[in-house]
Design goal:
Strand content: 15-25%
Structural class: alpha/beta
Distance between the termini: 52 Å
Largest sheet: 6 strands, mixed
Number of strands: 18
Length: 383
């Protein structure tokens, strides 16, 4: 049976190009400036978690400041899977998940066989820093006399993910978006060269809880838009801002949830399930034979092909979804992917806690809504 498989255009500008381009704009010569950012003394990356380009354009009435920017309709591509841990690691390292090793939301640890939540579970590992196999670019900034800072909500400051992907940067906290903008302005107004990553988490949290079509999400977008106007208005003339996101979001109501897990034919050779509801990663039992693996893949493909691309690990890699893949990443990647190609989500019916089933906003998949992210230039970068 022939199936149409998704692919990513490796030539398209991506989230991994943002920090290298910012460093190049600050005068560092040995990093590529694919975004062609103009020269600046300070560079600010505003990463608004969950603010996909399509989400922003669909709610433009609530983002009047951003809407009036010349680059409002510009976009770049996130990474696969379109999930926060993979995307933020690509932002800070400048490489794809296949190289930096953060290959999903939940990923099997090849050493223990256990599934690790890369957002919340890295701290339980004996050497969590080894999960990131490409170094963050903050060290490149520091050796070139550029001060590197990350401004975020204080609850992220001590997380293992923050410590790993933002290693080499100064952590600055602000509880509200407005406080973070003030902190960012304080940093870039100081003498010298500065690289600042301003992380805004509120929209993603509301998307999961209320949905991107909710009044609560729209109100929060208005707050973000107003804060970014203040940032733009008070920037030094030689500071540039690049506004982007880690992924977009799709609202998936409970009526579009599909369950798996109790069918023996599907699960008898599956040892564990990783990924997330729009991008399942299934891992085979170690004793599963080649013929059993092939039969399981074909069973999933036969029964789920109307809702998802069901792909083997080899098909995912050959399609270039992970970009170049390092040996250390290979065994972290699922044996089978169940990748939603409609606005649906997949849940394990064996989980009687119904954990996550009340989540409305979803991401992780390959839709343009999930992958397309803003590329808005402010300040010196708008010139």
């Amino acid at each position: 049976m022939s199936i149409m498989l998704p692919s990513l255009n490796s030539a398209h500008l991506s989230l991994a190009d943002v920090l290298p381009s910012c460093l190049a704009s600050l005068g560092i010569l040995d990093v590529p400036n694919k975004l062609e950012l103009p020269e600046a003394r300070a560079a600010v990356v505003v990463l608004v978690d969950g603010l996909g380009a399509h989400n922003l354009q669909a709610t433009a009435a609530h983002a009047r400041f951003l809407k009036n920017q010349n680059s409002f309709h510009h976009s770049i591509t996130s990474v696969f899977p379109s999930t926060t841990a993979a995307a933020l690691a690509s932002l800070t390292t400048g490489v794809s998940p296949g190289l930096h090793g953060m290959t999903g939301y939940k990923v099997r640890n090849p050493e223990s066989g256990e599934v690790v939540n890369l957002l919340t579970g890295l701290g339980a590992l004996p050497q969590p820093e080894q999960w990131l196999t490409s170094p963050p670019l903050y060290s490149t900034a520091t050796v070139n006399e550029v001060s590197a800072s990350v401004v975020a909500h204080p609850r992220f400051a001590d997380s293992s993910l923050t410590k790993i992907i933002h290693a080499g940067s100064e952590q600055v906290s602000g509880k509200t978006i407005e406080e973070r903008v003030v902190a960012t302005l304080s940093l870039v107004q100081q003498p010298g060269k500065h690289l600042v990553v301003l992380y805004v988490s509120e929209l993603d949290e509301l998307a999961h809880n209320k949905g991107v079509m909710s009044s609560e999400w729209s109100a929060a977008l208005e707050s973000v838009d107003g804060a970014l106007k203040i940032l733009s208005d008070e920037l030094p003339a030689d500071a540039g801002v690049f506004v982007t996101a880690d992924h977009g979001v799709i609202d998936v109501p409970p009526t579009r949830h599909y369950l798996y897990g109790n069918d023996v034919e599907h699960m008898q050779h599956i040892a564990s399930v990783g990924g997330e509801p729009r991008c399942l990663q299934l891992y085979f039992s170690e004793d599963a034979t080649a013929s059993q693996r092939e039969a399981t893949l074909l069973t999933w493909r036969k029964d789920w092909s109307e809702l998802a691309w069901v792909m083997s690990r080899e098909e995912v890699i050959n399609a270039g979804l992970y970009g170049q893949v390092a040996n250390t990443s290979m065994q972290r990647i699922g044996d089978i992917f169940v990748l939603a190609n409609k606005d649906v989500a997949f849940y394990d019916e064996r989980d009687l806690t119904f954990k996550g089933r009340n989540m409305i906003g979803q991401h992780g998949g390959m839709s343009t809504t999930e992958l397309s992210i803003p590329a808005i230039r402010l300040g010196a970068f708008a010139n």
